Amino acid sequence: MSTSRSTTSSRPVCPPEPAIRGRIGPDADHGFYPVAHRYHLYLSLSCPGCLRIAVTHALLGLDDRISRTLLPPVPDGPGAGYAALRAPYEATAHGYRGAARAPVLADRWTGRVVSNHTPDILRDLCLRFGGAGGPDLYPATAEREIRELDLLCERDIGAAAQRAGQAGGDDASRAAALDILLGALGALEERLATGPHLVGDALTAADVHLWVTLVQLDTVHRWHLDAEAVHRIAAHPRLWAFARRLLANPAFARQLRLEEIERRHHHDCRGLEAAGAAVQIIDWTATDDLLASPARQRHPR
Fold first, then answer.
1. H or E stretch covering 118
2. From CA 87, how far away is CA 84, in angstroms rounded?
3. Is the pLDDT of residue 134 over 90?
4. Are 134 and 61 in contact (CB under 8 A)?
């Protein structure tokens, strides 16, 4: 592997969240229950968890039921938090001293945070506000399979890519992490050989999660990998065709803010880039049919 790599590895685009895990129940017997205009989302589209929620919100057509505020790409408060979220956090926990982080699902009636836990927010949006002709992103028969794919995206792609590009580690550890990453991509490549979606015949939350994971892999993690590693990642044609196909869906494309992702990444990571930064896997600004080549050279910044 090339020795030209960042002197400081990229930190996670979204820091770990302090757990506020209220749930929206099915009816008025629960403290939080599904009512139009009661809830509000605070999202930063530079954060992968927030991007998953934003895409899901768009797919379900929830603009007229759950409002949202888009936060700046770089947090402006202590601990990677947001000044705009101090009030809801403090209303939830008196004297709250932690970081006021996004994503947040807030209750407009009380001003409190319902949840800042991405998986719970996603499920509650789908289970309590889905339907009415929208996609069933969490079909009951596929719940376990979706959870397994969530873990694969988080651990074997996202976390492995982070370790594979980490500066200061040994070559053996980076190579092992790259092997895990390529193994996960290979398994997904085989899975997509049977159809356009990961689970069953229709779009599910697993597809949304994978798409956001691929966005991060190409726009964030590759900056800290060597060119050979990025070309090996790009050598999964079904996987990147999947990414382009979903990019053509406005619910995905209209949530993608490449400049914001790049701004947050370079704010969090001040080291030198590696050779893989010059190898863009796909053009995320394009919504046309498949490009001629899965990887192309671009001029390094």
1. helix 118-129
2. 7
3. no
4. yes
